[in-house]
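User: quick one, fold this
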Amino acid sequence: MAFGEHTSKSIIGTKSHELLGKKIVLCVTGSVATIRSPDIARELMRLGADVYVVMTKMAEHVVHPDMFHWSTGNPVVTELTGGIEHIQYGGEHKEHADLILVAPSTANTIGKVAAGIDDTPVTTLLTTAIGAGIPVIIAPAMHASMYKHPIVNENIRKLQGIGVEVLMPRFEEGKAKIPGTEEIVAAVVKKLTKSQDLRGKRILITAGPTRAYIDAFRYITNPSSGKMGVAIAEDALERGAEVTLVYGPATTPPPPNAKVVKIETTEQMLDTVVSELKAKKYDAAILSAAASDWGPADRKMEKTPSSQGEWTLKLKALPKIIAEVKKADPKVFLVGFKAEYDITEEELIDRSYKRLKEMKMNLIVANDVSKENRGFNVDTNEVYIIDPKRDVLHISLTSKKEIAGRLIDKVRDRIKA
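Assistant:
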């Protein structure tokens, strides 16, 4: 440590050098979770980062700026001055920050950033940094009911749509609590150190639901939101892969850098998958879509009148998309998904392994959608990834983004071998 340097900087790099030479700005907003922020700063420093803190006035009511000065060894920004701190940290020049981390972020700050409102040092820095293309990670913390507000969710989706990473909060005691320090730090490391380990690889992904029409415009479907498939596509894109997303009518915005082929029915998804596999060489096909298994035996192109009192439907099994993949390309690395409802862990693994062998898959991802916060239309899941040797990787309840990363790790290891 050099003479005159703040003693807190002596911890930089004491755990690893993963973030050595990286300049990270930690933005802190007015949540009680602000008491966690000094620990987050210190952990980033132990991995080699130099951390600078920018605070809102409301955050100062929770933790005094002196605590952050001590934690990081750097002066703390509590207001913007003639030093134009937002440009210093987030402007378009060589000395800007490598990453902006907002931990914790209130719903108020999320809404302002999504609307481009700059009325605090944090929001002004974020607008500047996003415009300059600097990576931004946001870790929300608020009451659960606030997080569930449709406009808050819309604001989060808007930020995700422009490339801002929003971490999944922990739902405990009626609150959407800030993610754990370990998870936040891991997200920063992943963002700043992820190698382009899939550059030159081409991956086909299916996502979302499909529709089985029963008359001219009514249809059978399921609650799939496309969140899992989109998370897989985003992770593969971040690693440099060329991604084609065959996407059913879901609610989650697809990633902007993927080739997106929108379809409606199971038959359309099947035709698209087969034609893509025959038209070009794909290294992997990941079929995460919840394609409808059943459709009408006889569809009439008319509106069925409700005045008839009752309506009896005869359904037929629809084609299994995954059964056609290896026929189209026997060498493609095939990953399937299997959802079950209210069965034991042993049954889930047995049924999934049987399906893997039948369909000649290389991996299968299984989950039980009967459990809370797992499966359809939520941001989290618990899964079992099974290979042909019946080796099982159990990933306990976590974000679909985390699951996507773990799955792509496995795919990468096998298609790179």
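User: anything notable?
Assistant: The first strand starts at residue 23 and ends at 28.
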